[in-house]
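Supplementary notes for students who missed Thursday's class. We covered one full example, reproduced here. Read the sequence, then the structure, then the short commentary at the end.
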Amino acid sequence: MITTQAFPTIRDIRRSAWNDCFPGALEDWDYYVAVENAAIDDFQWRYLAVFEDGALVAVAAAFITHYRLDTTVSGAGKRLTARLERLWPGVLQVGLYAIGSPVAERCDAGFASSVPEGHRPRLLKHLLLAARQDADEFGIGLVAVKDAPTQDRHWADSCRAAGFQSMPSLPTGVLPLPYGSVDAYLGSLGKSTRKDLRRKLRAPGPRVEWRRNIDDVLPEVMRLYESTLTRAELQFERLPASYFTGVLERLEQRAVCALYWVDEHLVAFNLMLVDEHRLVDKFFGHDVEFTRDYNLYFRSWLTNVDYCIQHNIALYECGQAGYASKLRLGCEFEGNSLFFRHRNRLLNGLLRLAKMFLRPDRSDPAMAAVISET
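Structure (token representation):
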């Protein structure tokens, strides 16, 4: 007998049971506890669980928020939707119940190690039904699956069977690192990029400090975070200081922050998750007044590449932004999809039309090229 339940906190699910569903995940039970403790504004957390004969067999994180439909739009499209929002405040904002997480790299459903591969589509169906029922309890019409891996046919088939529409979401950049040195990595890049990066490396650079506690510099870190956020076109959530300190404290050796100093000035920071297999870039914040003179973005990139090579880490996961630069830097891209359905048939039809204009690849040529690849 299969039953489902939605929990308001991940603490309602045993740590070992959750982690058994996501073997080797960096964004594991402890990560979600840190996220909960951070109390990010405008988000309410939900955790969906499927039980078979009383045993936990599948789980997924979910959240509730007010969502702006143009969140993934940039460039001219963003300027147009901003004008529309000024004319009709709130016209682009809807209540959203989404499977996934605003602070996780991708949407993954987890399955107990005892679940055979062939049983997963049936359990995904129950997760989708549980999300719909939980959303109804909160009076929310729009249910979505955020950033499901495009190559995961189980997600695509289950969402299609449930009547969900689909559109491309932001791809995830990854950089495999089968190199013995940074110089060997540079040798794999195009001639102009390689020449440019080597020139940047010859210039004086900031001092890099690796930290697992940033309490003493937290005000400066948040200044850099806020400054970077105001310049970002694609941003879903606003992270409080407690997110950065909580992730470092809770994940211990699996989280690290690189600080970049020019004399006594903190000019950049980079929060990352790391294990023996991969380094995940969570957030890079920098002071724009120092960025050009010290090439902070490319310095941090090469610092992370060097860290991976020195620690025999095979994969650098570098997030969902800056596609033009990442193409030059040799990244590969893993496609993601957004699935959604509104319970109101008329609104669902309007969203079908709106997605033609709100697709992320409509306004960013580099992103369009990457999405086309994936």
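Commentary. The radius of gyration is 21 Å. The longest strand covers residues 55-68. If anything here is unclear, bring it to office hours.
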